[in-house]
UniProtKB/TrEMBL annotation:
Organism encoding this protein: Colletotrichum phormii
Protein name from the UniProt record: FAD dependent oxidoreductase domain-containing protein
Keyword Oxidoreductase applies: yes
Cofactor(s) this protein requires: FAD
Pfam families membership: DAO
SUPFAM superfamilies in the record: FAD-linked reductases, C-terminal domain, Nucleotide-binding domain
Annotated ranges, domain FAD dependent oxidoreductase: 17-176
An example Gene Ontology biological process: D-amino acid catabolic process
InterPro entries for the chain: D-amino_acid_oxidase_CS (IPR006181), DAO (IPR023209), FAD-dep_OxRdtase (IPR006076)
Amino acid sequence: LRSKLLNIGSAFSRPDARVVFNCTGNSSKDLPGVEDSKRYPTRGQIVLAKAAHVQKNIMRHGRNYKTYIIPRPWSNGNVVLGGYMQKGVGTSDTFAYETESILQRTSALQVSSELTEAEPEVLASFSGLRPSREGGARVELVELIVDGQTRVLVHNYGASGTGFQAGYGIALEAVEAIEDVLQGIAQNHTGAKLRRFDINSS
């Protein structure tokens, strides 16, 4: 079920909606009812290349950038070359000079001699905005009064560039936060089922 919401309270428009998970990411700064001023974008750019001979993950951190080589499993030899980490930059455009910088930096890594064994075939460049947040990810339960009834909202966003690594863990934390709520619903409504409600505020 997908719906465009005017505000976070609209997610409770269904009478059987007791709990809503707010996973709106970058939209959490502007979504009425959330409007998290601590949320900010962190822009990244990567290069997708074919280099089947590369087998190792390699990373080096720098100011406003990360240099890394990450083979993609079961992708017919594709690797991700990165990258950039630009705090507060809100454009998702890709730039040729950044692609060139990524190729130069990944080739120059001392431990990445295997990358230069054969020239990688550049397939595409991508950029995106990571949903970052001052103080780290927000996993928080709050109660709202909707049409005179108490409803539960669980915020779960702001993992920035660690979403792939940390996403499963913070999702478990968000679910654990409502265990008592779910038990109460089950006790009051025999056979009650959870329904999924995806928030699309764009």
